[in-house]
Amino acid sequence: SWTPDHFVDSAVLALQHTIGPTDQVILGLSGGVDSSVAALLLHRAIGPRLHGIFVDNGLLRQDEFATVLKAYEGLGLNVTGVNAAPEFYAALAGLSDPEAKRKAIGRTFIEVFDREAQKVTGAAWLAQGTIYPDVIESVSVKGPAVTIKSHHNVGGLPEKMHLKVVEPLRMLFKDEVREVGAALGLPGEILNRHPFPGPGLGIRILGDITPEKVDLLQRADGVFINLLKEHGLYSQVWQAGAMLLPVQSVGVMGDERTYERVVALRAVTSIDGMTADWAHLPYEFLAEVSNKIINQVRGINRVVYDISSKPPATIEWE
Ligand code: XMP
């Protein structure tokens, strides 16, 4: 019968058999469960010949890059953090269309990743955290031209870099990946993380992206996520986050009139992300989040809660 320990043992043997004794392997780390579990598995099989590359695209959550990089280092992984935020912001400048933004982010990711990967001598393999649902679900959710995980799977990259592909998780479902991660000692902080889209906050800032808007959204989103955790609600929702709307509205602060931005909070329950219900979070909790965001994040004077289910709405706003 399938157990995570048996899977780890046989996967390690298979990886050691497949990957030549001096071959170096490159893996893009995202902070997500799948790439992190793939990294730990490969690390167990080939140690420092696994080279993880973790790109800061400037569209991650507040403190995410530093926290996750530290967690990876704590696990003994050989990982390079690349601060590429300015490059992503430059590629995104002036773009408002969601698909144009996705493409710019995907293209920039490949450029940055490729450049970093070239620095690894003897690189023969590109490892990917592809899991079984990714294998069968190559169709789009948003439109015919978009693959949901196009960014994670760095399409076109292996051919370009002349690397062979190794995908040690491609037969596993998400719950199995989590069990394997737990067996490999992945900390709960990464193991139980909500899904987060590859284009990150880039598709949660409606309209064009600037570093100032990213900062505003990171702070509002940070308040929301931290309070979800404090109230024990984080693990009860499938995904949660804040969206920065391209709208300003009138408010008052003291005797001053304000004209500032609106943030929409989104939290959903779901099994697989294909359908979702808006999470019925307690009113008192929502009130606390709203007050804290408006009091602490200068530039936001209104918070709304998204009560749309999927379908017909999607989880992300773009
Ligand atoms: P939607 O918004 O289509 O999202 O209901 C379903 C799930 O997919 C995630 N998502 C993405 N993930 N690149 C990704 O890697 C993307 O372009 C993308 N768009 C949506 C979304 O966060 C949710 O978990």
UniProtKB/TrEMBL annotation:
ATP binds at residues 30-36. Residues 2-193 form the GMPS ATP-PPase domain. One of its GO terms (molecular function) is ATP binding. It comes from the Bacteria. Its EC number is 6.3.5.2. It catalyses: XMP + L-glutamine + ATP + H2O = GMP + L-glutamate + AMP + diphosphate + 2 H(+). Pathway: Purine metabolism; GMP biosynthesis; GMP from XMP (L-Gln route): step 1/1. The keyword Transcription regulation does not apply. GO terms for cellular component: cytosol. Keywords: ATP-binding, Glutamine amidotransferase, GMP biosynthesis, Ligase, Nucleotide-binding, Purine biosynthesis. Catalyzes the synthesis of GMP from XMP. Homodimer. This is GMP synthase [glutamine-hydrolyzing]. It comes from Hymenobacter montanus. The chain holds residues 194 to 511 of 511 of the full protein.
